[in-house]
Amino acid sequence: MEFSIKGNSPDKAQHACIIVGIFEAGQLTPPAAAVDRKIGKLIERIVAQGDFTGKSGTSLLLHAPAGAGSQRVLLVGLGKEKEFCEHAYYAAIRHAFKAVRDTGAEAAHLTLSALPVRRRGTAWKIRQAAIAALETAYRFDSFKSQPAAPQVALQHISLAIDAAKNAAQSEKNRKAAQAALAEGLAIAEGMALAKNLANTPGNVCTPAYLADTALQLADEYDIDCQILERADMEQLGMNALLSVTRGSRQPPKFIVLHYRGQATNNGSGHPASKRSKNGAPARPLVLIGKGITFDSGGISLKPGEGMDEMKFDMCGAASVLGALKVAILLRLPIELVVLVPTCENMPGGNASKPGDIVTSMSGQTIEILNTDAEGRLILCDALTYAKRFKPDAVIDVATLTGACIIALGHVASGLFANDEALAGELLEAGETALDRAWQLPLWADYREQLKSNFADMANIGGRPAGSITAACFLSRFAEKFDWAHLDVAGTAWKSGADKGATGRPVPLLAHYLLQRAGRRD
User: Fold this and answer.
1) Which of 35, 130, 238, 487 has the largest CB neighbor count within 10 A?
2) Is 392 within any annotated ligand binding site?
3) What is the pLDDT of residues 499-512, one digit of tens each?
4) Angle between helical axes of 122-137 and 167-199 (0-180°, round to 10)
5) What is the dihedral of CA 259, 294, 400, 385, to 10 degrees?
6) Residue 17 and residue 157: Cα distance in Å, rounded?
7) Which residue range or ranges hold the Cytosol aminopeptidase domain (predicted)?
8) CATH of domain 191-516
9) How many Å apart are CA 252 and CA 54, to the nearest integer?
10) What is the pLDDT, as a whole number, of residue 113?
11) What element of type H or E holds 8?
């Protein structure tokens, strides 16, 4: 699919399909009014007759209206004008692209991207439009014997931007829009990688499969990749991680990817990072992704209903690989290390048992009271391993606790951090990306629930505040650096008729990396 940026003159161009917005109560946007003048006020008459109300989530296709200069005019409802915000804009964009795909149009011109959105400028609107376009086009049918016939039609999308008052400003707006378009397309590619990995079944997407994917990524983009095998982990003392994989026949892997971005010129006119020296971050950022490719719960076996969705327990790993791809595609001037501890959690004659005690890579001992609390066991050794990079910040991403779903549902990811500045940066990135997180406390009081009579700590703290005690457990391995933890158990995938990975929190991570690279709207 091809994209282009065009000025907002819908009445002077011809398109296979032009997309215009209508607010509730029949308020036409300026592009809609311009088109309406060309077609003899047809839109006004349709609205006056009650055939289109402008309600959010609705659309109406006009075929070859006389005088339009376009084969199709798609009216898209924007809801109430006073409530038109970032989320309403994104919802309208997604609905528009879905509606266009049901037509035979090979090209479409989107005027919605030129509409004013409170607190958001041209770059943000273009970036989100590009993400929405590719998100609505995403399909995963690789394992169907007869995949659905591809929706061939839409091949080109042009995105409108507001006309500037003078030529210099117009050129500046165009360059900003082009840069934002590239960012949006890269984020969408990162999300697609994360979705593809997460949607792939557990009998295919094994730890070895993730390792091969990392090696392919490294080979394609010429970045460093190291795969630690079981013997390497044993030598390092990663006994917490290795305790999880004991019941599985699939060998564990520990993936290390190292991207060293060029910091000479990020193309934005901004410094590479607010924590930088000579235009380059002095120390790397580290992303860690939980990579349990299938989680049966181990000896603490999960209920059978819905267990198929435990292939999604590697969404943290998928998302950090997706975020890495965004950084690579955009050549962000940052240094980024991605760590993926990956294995299966299965029952078996050699599986870890409740009551077992293991010594983590950090030397701290852990009493395993529940083998289904395995994510924190692989992450704690990864956090210890991260210290060797002397990181500027470490962010781990994990589908860690069902308790986070109880707390936040499927809207926001849970955020925990031992550094308020880092937490603030991630919250801001989430708001900008429309991939929101909500910060929860890491108070020392909660650590009391992790006390063990026989080891330095237990791996669970009981039902109360389950997502908080899980984060408190991880915090004991992150005391030497700035650290944040994203619990994406409620946001990384959907169940039911729309079952599948969402690609979250790739947008949040990508916008955080863009911020660190000095690219702000």
Assistant:
1) 487
2) no
3) 999 999 999 999 99
4) 30
5) -40
6) 10
7) 370-377
8) 3.40.630.10
9) 54
10) 96
11) none
Tokens of 288: 């860690």
Distances (CA, A) of 51 to 44, 75, 435, 486: 10, 11, 34, 45
- CA-CA distances (angstroms) from residue 110 to 19, 156, 158, 161, 366? 5, 11, 6, 9, 56
* DSSP classification of residue 302: P
Three-state secondary structure call for residue 198: helix
Which of 6, 246, 253, 376 is labelled catalytic? 376
pLDDT at 221: 97
Write down the catalytic residue from 174, 275, 283, 302.
302
Pairing of strands 483-487, 393-398: parallel
Q: Name the stretches of the chain with pLDDT < 50.
A: 263-281
98 is an active site residue: no
User: Where, residue-wise, is CATH 3.40.220.10 in the chain?
Assistant: 2-163
pLDDT at 51: 95
Q: Is 183 annotated as a binding residue?
A: no
CA triple 422-428-432, angle to 5 deg: 145
Active site residue 376: yes
Q: Which fold has domain 2-163?
A: Leucine Aminopeptidase, subunit E; domain 1 (3.40.220)
Q: Is 290 annotated as a binding residue?
A: yes
And the tokens for 48? 């006056």
Q: What is the pLDDT of residues 476-489, one digit of tens each?
A: 999 999 999 999 99
Residue 445 is assigned to a ligand binding site? no
